[in-house]
């Protein structure tokens, strides 16, 4: 499924980028919780790719809305477990399943901690309380914030971005009262989102490392004619808009 979503992202998005300051931290062999915001439908595909590419040695798990898991049952085969959102039963399901997952050596749990789709600019983040409860059942776990964002830059497809923050141990979180524990997790993620957002606004690909790069250009007949025209002029065909704009700028021409 990692290979499937790799092809799917390459086909529909331009790239999956990580800022050079936001690469995944070095982690111990113990359980890890990666908690993130939830801006778009693409989050599940991006998380599967990140898990497979960056943490291939770990078994990944994720809570999933029970109603959505009925529609997308394939995610069960990739470590998703059902949670009935907004119900006391769902909270009990989440904690019970999480206890079992985080008791396994080398486990990695991914949590879209807002529990709903939310714009990256919305503040406060309103993380679900359950993510802070995990320190109580898994004090040996490490908690890592991850920021997700999507934007259109110069190409036809959108850019996907992910950035990892500094880890905090479950025991350090457990030393805080439950309300302060949740506030700490939320503050760390909000700061990470703000920093990633500044790089996204700058639109400078040199600030990022590409984990996946998609097909550039318009495609189809239009790019076929462009390729032929470049060959007739003795030029190398560059399907990407950014590359073509730089070439025209150096030649003194105005890009269309």
The separation of the N and C termini measures: 39 Å
CATH topology of the largest domain: Glycerol-3-phosphate (1)-acyltransferase
| Overall geometry | globular
Kindly provide the radius of gyration, computed on alpha-carbon positions and rounded to a whole number of angstroms: 21 Å
User: What is the name of the CATH class of the largest domain?
Assistant: Alpha Beta
Low-confidence stretches: 245-252
State the helix count. Answer: 9
How many E-type strands?
9
CATH architecture of the largest domain: 3-Layer(aba) Sandwich
| Succession of helices and strands | HEEHEHEHEHEEEHHEHH
Summarize the structure.
The chain is an alpha/beta fold and 256 residues long.
């Amino acid at each position: 499924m990692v290979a499937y979503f790799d092809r799917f992202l390459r086909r529909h998005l331009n790239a999956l980028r990580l800022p050079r300051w936001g690469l995944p931290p070095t982690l111990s062999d113990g359980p890890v919780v990666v908690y993130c915001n939830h801006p778009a439908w693409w989050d599940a595909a991006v998380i599967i790719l990140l898990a497979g590419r960056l943490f291939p040695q770990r078994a990944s798990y994720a809570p999933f809305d029970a109603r959505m898991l009925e529609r997308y049952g394939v995610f069960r085969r990739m470590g998703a477990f059902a949670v009935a959102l907004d119900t006391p039963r769902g909270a009990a399901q989440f904690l019970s399943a999480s206890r079992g997952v985080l008791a396994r050596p080398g486990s990695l749990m991914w949590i879209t901690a807002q529990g709903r789709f939310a714009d990256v600019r919305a503040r406060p983040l309103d993380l679900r309380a359950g993510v802070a409860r995990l320190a109580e059942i898994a004090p040996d776990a490490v908690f890592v914030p991850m920021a997700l964002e999507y934007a259109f830059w110069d190409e036809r497809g959108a850019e996907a971005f992910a950035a990892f923050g500094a880890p905090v141990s479950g025991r350090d979180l457990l030393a805080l009262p439950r309300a302060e524990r949740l506030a700490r997790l939320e503050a760390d993620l909000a700061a990470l989102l703000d920093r990633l957002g500044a790089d996204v606004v700058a639109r400078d690909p040199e600030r990022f490392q590409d984990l996946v790069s998609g097909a550039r250009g318009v495609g189809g007949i239009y790019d076929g004619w462009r390729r032929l025209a470049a060959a007739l002029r003795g030029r190398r065909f560059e399907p990407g808009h950014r590359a073509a704009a730089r070439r025209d700028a150096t030649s003194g021409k105005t890009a269309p």
